[in-house]
Structure formats: structure tokens, C-alpha cells
Fold these 2 entries.
Entry 1:
Amino acid sequence: MPVPRATTLPALATEISSCRACPRLVAWREEVARTKRAAFRDEEYWARPVPGFGDPGARILVAGLAPAAHGGNRTGRVFTGDRSGDWLFRALHRAGLANQPTSISRDDGLRLRDCYVAAAVRCAPPANAPSPAERDECRPYLVRELRLLRRVRVVVALGAFAYDATWRALGDAGIELPARRPRFGHGVEVEVGLGAVVCSFHPSQQNTFTGRLTEEMLDAVLASSRALAGA
């Protein structure tokens, strides 16, 4: 398990992007970058672990599952260049947490306000399904982010996997938690030592195409998160 030594977010980003701890994920992310998707055949893929990004003074931390094979694994920024990110950043913009509604590349001018976005697992996994062991291997990075983001008061967990990983990371970071973890559900809010954890369905196409997650539902989660964080 990696033990991050970074004392700043930029230094942590450098540590994360050089990690090769999980052989299956390393092989997959690099294979995707070699074969590419036809639409991106002329692009150079990032093909490394993807660090979090955003406002270092953020009061809201948004935690997703993992980078998409042709999204963050291609662009080098979490939720950037894929359909899930399209949904998320439009919602963050509507909530006043982002300066623009689009996220297509690392240098597209996107800036987050009072918000930081990260993932439970930092490498793109096959079938978008990291193993529990890979989740646990990556968890110290989220723990370190929680310690460096000293103003965070709300963690928004996008999906059950992120909720589970976030809960474990909060415990490892020494943050007081309830004796029993409430069951995941969209809109569930849990009081914890730093403030609150707020749950949302992940903005994946599986959820957005079927109507399981609507823009109004995601907007409501972010509005509640802002209120809880005092953002």
C-alpha cells in the first residue's frame, strides 16, 4: 500500500501520477493508451494514475469511482473528457462551484470554486470495476487529500463504491464516524466529525440515460452540500 509523504496538494499529485502499485490497472491503462478509441487516435493518452484537482481551500470534496478509460485516462484530469464528467461539471457550474459547464482537457480553463474533485481509485479499471484490493491500495491517497484539504466540511460520494471508499478513508484520517454506517442511497446525508457525507447516484450513462439520476436530483444534492458546508 502506498504511503504518501507529500505535504502539499501539488506534491501529492506528482506522487499519485507516478504510482505503479496495482499490476492489473497499470497493464489496462497502458493497453487502452496504445489501442486508443478511433475518435482519439491522434491524441496522446495520459495513461497514468489521475490525481484530484480543484480549490485547495475547498469546503466540498466530490469523490467518484475511477477515471474513465477514454476520459481521465486520456486527458489526465478526473471526470474530464467523458459523459459522466459532462453531467458533473454542468451541475457544478449551475451550483456556482465551477466557472464553466464543460471539461474537455487539462488546459481548458476550468476552475473550481470551494470544490475539489477526486476518485476512490486513480487508475482506469477494466469494465470500470476496480477490485476491493485495488480500492484499498489507493485509499491512502484519499486519506492524504482529506488531511491536506483542511477546510473540507462535506464529502459528496458519487455511487456506492465511492461511499464505501470514502467512509474507510475518513476513518483512516482519524475523523469521527457513527458506530454504524448508514446504507447508501441517493440523497442520504450522514453526520461525521468533519461535517457530513452526502450520497448521490453516480452520473454514469447507466444512471442518466435511464432517468435513475436526473439533473434536478444532482442539483438538489449539490445545493444541500453547499448549505451543509456553508459554501
Note: The longest strand covers residues 195-200.
Entry 2:
Amino acid sequence: MKHLRDQLVNADKQLAKNRSDIERLSSDLKRGDSNFVYCGKHYSSKQVENDLTRRFEQFKVKEATLAKLTHVLTARERGLEAGREKLKAMQAAKGQLEVDVANMDARLEMVKVAQSTSEFNFDDSRLARTKELVREINARIDVAEKLVNAETTYPGQISLDEEDANGDITEQITAYFEASHKADATVAVKLD
């Protein structure tokens, strides 16, 4: 940016000198003389007029270039200022994040201290596994109770009750499944 500023200052000085030279030549031509002397050399009015025309065209080009360079510098300065503002905002956000992280670290340390002084160690994964084990044990106990309470006949044991050999098979199946369904419902209630 400094280079561009220096370039603009030099271009502005040169443009001011060019303008002064153009105004001098224009003023001299307006007097109506036919010959002119500059730095010990003689020039005709036509030569001065041609030189003035070239100088004026060059002046307009240089003036337009200077205006564009000025716009470029202004845009860069605005961009630089916007960048500085953004940097300030980012630094402020970074500072806030550092404070937030420090606060979270302090809270974490407090929790660690509280956990180390507590006789309880809470681990959700272990708790979930323990609950699952308790459910499995309850289910096994329910099955064992059913086996113990079930009337079973042992081989070689004398049957004292007469069995109804002519009973309806569909009634037997319905009774069996109703008993089984009630037992499953009881196990499900106990598991919950």
C-alpha cells in the first residue's frame, strides 16, 4: 500500500506540473504570436499548437489513470480496514472461547474432585449391564420356579389318578396355551 501511495503522490505532482505547462503553452498561443522561444529554442505557433495537443491528450490519460489508481487505493484501504475490523472481532471471539474453555476445564476439575472424594463411581455402561444381568437372573429364577412347581411324573412312578384319555384335543391345546400365555405375562411383568 505504501508503494501505491508513493506512486499516487508522484503521479499527482507530475500531473500538476503537466497542467501548469499546458496552461502556459495555451496562454502563450492565446497571445497570437507566430514564434515562441522556450529554453533558447525557437518554435512556430503550429509546432506549439501540435505539442499542446499531444500534451493535453497525455494529460487526460494520466488524469484518468490517477483517478483509477486513487479508486484502487481507496478500495484497498476499505478492504484493509474491513479486514482489521474482522480480525478484531475474531480476536474478541477467540478471547471469549478461551474464557469458555477455561470455565469448562474448571468445571471438569470440580467434577473430578467430587468423583474422587465420593465413594460412588457412576458408570452408565456398568449400570446398564447390571440391569440386564438382573433381568436375566429373574428370568432364570422364573423358569426354575415353573420347573419345580410343575407336576411331573417320574419314570416308574405309580399313577393314582385316572387320566381322561377320551378328552378333546382342542380343549387340551387351548388350556395349555392359556396357561403358557399367563406365565409369559407374569415373567414380562417381573422383568419390567
Note: Residues 124-150+169-191 form one domain.
